[in-house]
Recover the amino acids of this structure.
């Protein structure tokens, strides 16, 4: 049983230029997920990128690199295109798809997900969310937050839900090639703490994660 991880890190990013290698407490952002993968039970750690700079940084921190074609590296390219690009020509049984923007995950989180694959076909990471009213920007009740406001329930009267946080996903090569999706079949959720669920898309996110890292999680 061969387990690989694949970290998708294209060069173009708008919120934070060169986001995947932006400095985070003295190290490039992508180095944290590479390190978590290398310390886990994953057999091979790969980075898929269209950027020579990201490729160089990734190699320095111990990852294998696969060139991601420009046609599947655009702002609107689904991640699945890069996952399938890797899977078509690579030999493995299980893939851990890790987001480089989730630097707070640890090797033990990945290992817990892999252990769950004895029971499930695919795994995604999530945190629990308590019910609170949700509204559209034009102040209309929305989604799970919808309720009859004259009869607002107490929070504990509404069941909690999982919020997919995008930190990482696990699936088999077979399921990925057949479904062309990052998860399929019998899907399980690996619960992470809210702190570990933070991802980096903006400078505000970056500063928040820096503080979490300094304070410990």
């Amino acid at each position: 049983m061969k387990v690989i991880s694949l970290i998708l890190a294209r060069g173009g990013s708008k919120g934070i230029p060169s986001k995947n290698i932006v400095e985070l407490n003295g190290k490039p952002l992508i180095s944290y997920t590479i390190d978590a993968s290398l310390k886990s039970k994953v057999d091979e750690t790969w980075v898929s990128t269209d950027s020579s700079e990201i490729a160089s940084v990734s190699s320095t921190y111990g990852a294998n690199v696969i060139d991601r074609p420009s046609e599947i590296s655009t702002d609107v390219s689904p991640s699945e295109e890069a996952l399938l690009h890797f899977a078509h020509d690579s030999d493995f049984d299980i893939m851990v798809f890790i987001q480089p923007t989730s630097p707070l995950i640890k090797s033990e989180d990945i290992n817990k997900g892999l252990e769950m694959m004895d029971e499930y076909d695919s795994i995604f990471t999530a945190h629990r969310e308590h019910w609170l009213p949700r509204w559209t920007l034009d102040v209309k009740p929305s989604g799970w937050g919808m309720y009859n406001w004259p009869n607002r329930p107490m929070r504990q009267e509404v069941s909690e839900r999982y919020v997919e946080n995008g930190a990482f996903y696990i699936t088999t090569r077979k399921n990925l090639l057949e479904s062309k999706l990052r998860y399929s079949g019998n899907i399980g959720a690996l619960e992470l703490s809210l702190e570990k669920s933070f991802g980096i898309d903006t400078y505000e996110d970056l500063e928040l994660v820096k503080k979490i890292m300094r304070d410990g999680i």
